[in-house]
Write a structure and sequence with these properties.
Layout: H1 8-22, H2 27-38, H3 44-65, H4 72-79, H5 81-94, H6 99-121, H7 133-151, H8 154-170, H9 174-191
Helix pairs in contact: 1-2, 1-3, 2-3, 3-5, 3-6, 5-6, 6-7, 6-8, 7-8, 8-9
Length: 195
Amino acid sequence: MAQQLHLPQQIAATQLSLGNAYTNKDISKALDFYQQVIHSTGSATTQIQAQLNRLNLLTDIQRKLNTLPASPEITALIDAIPNLLLEITAQIDRLPPGRPAIYARINFAHHLMAWNRLTLINPNSSPNPNPSPGKIIPQLLATAIQQAKTLQDTRAESFAQGNLGEWYEQQQQWAAAQQEAMTALQLAQQSMPPI
């Protein structure tokens, strides 16, 4: 129906939902649906969400493959993760400032942290991206924090600060991690409605 009415955003949103539905049932179908969204004429936000979901699925596959052999197709997809990271970074940088851009940056940083943890556990399991997550993550979160401040969105700012604290914790920068966590907590308390 959406195809007959030429509603590209609704088609992309439906394909994104189908990709999400297939993540636990048929990985190749899920990846195909995400790929269709990425190449669709839907909104940039929906395309980025498909790329983030694809990255998350590939990271999950990579985590499982640390104990199992991989098919050549899966190995090729995992080897393409650095290019996917660059594509997502470029797309996020083109988003106009706003709440969707803030949460896209936070979500991407969170996925990068998970992927970085995985590569730290098993350094031979994936290719090294350039630029490294160590450079991308703080930049993404700093931009998200700044945009949230501009929008006076303390909830989004708190979420970004909390993720930055998680990054510093992952890097074993304990003082910075504690400072970011405290800032996130204060902002979260400010964003709560009074009782």
